Amino acid sequence: MNNKILNIIKNIAISFIALVFIMGFFSQSIVNLFLPKVKVSIPKESAIERTVNVIGEVKPKETLKVRLGGNVIVKEYYLNKGDEVKKGDPIFRIDTNYGLKNDYGDLESLKIELEKEKLNIDRLKNKSYIIDKKSIDLLETKLKKNISEFEDEKKLFKEGAITKKSLDMRKISIEELKTSLEIEIIKLKEKKSENEILIKEAKNKINKLQSKIKNIENNKNFYSNISDDGIYYSKTDGVILKNNEVDKILYRDKVITEVAKTNGLKYVANFKEEDYNIVNNARRIRLENVQSLGTIRVVNISQIVNDNILKLEAEFDKDYKDKLIIGQKIKGEIVKSERINGTKTISRSSIIPNGELKEGSRGKVYIVEKQKGILGEEKIVKEVEVNIKGVGDKSVIVTGLESYKKPKVILNLSYRIQDGKKVFIWD
Question: Is the pTM of this model over 0.90?
Answer without folding.
Answer: no
